[in-house]
Amino acid sequence: MNHDSATKGSPEPTPTTPATTAHQLPEITRFITTHNADGTATFSNAFPDQVSRTSVPGALFTLGYATDTLPVDLSSDRDFTAYKQYLENNPGLAISTGSVCRIVDIGPDITSAMHRTVSIDYGVVLEGEVELILESGETRRLSRGDIAIQRGTNHAWKNVTRRVGEDGRQEAGWARMLYVLLPVLPVKVQGEVLGESVVGMGVADSS
């Protein structure tokens, strides 16, 4: 992610802002439920409630959960095994056979690279304000609680958050988004299959 505007035909961005600069957002706590031996619902202690972050250019990624199948196999905690593997070896943005729940903290004034995944993404703004930029040049501004449904399209995110600093002046701030990504069939437009494009995002190709 970078400071440059992400529009169609623009060069690949070069990250210029460390993702850890003046991070103002709280730690993320995630709770997982399960069943005990007699079938009673309980909270799992298979993973810490606090979820660690992974730094990418201009942002911080938190993998809240991930599965390698849909429907998900919850028997014998098979999904726990898959999630543990993804924590040890981060998947790409999407998982072609499963689901991803990810929290992304976007640095002040950062604009991501234009990117596309073969997935349907439910994006929810948790903190701050962001701008969703499409390949056509169209934009929409999203505030806390707003939702974007990303249907396999090429897009970028720009953090436009403003906050009051310690000196009482307006300054750029961090934004936080929650994404749930689910796999889709190949997207075809006028006979052309639109594949994944994540160049400049600082992440691996999706698995």
UniProtKB/TrEMBL annotation:
CDD domains noted in UniProt: cupin_BLL6423-like (cd02231)
Region (Disordered) location: 1-24
Name of the protein this chain belongs to: Uncharacterized protein
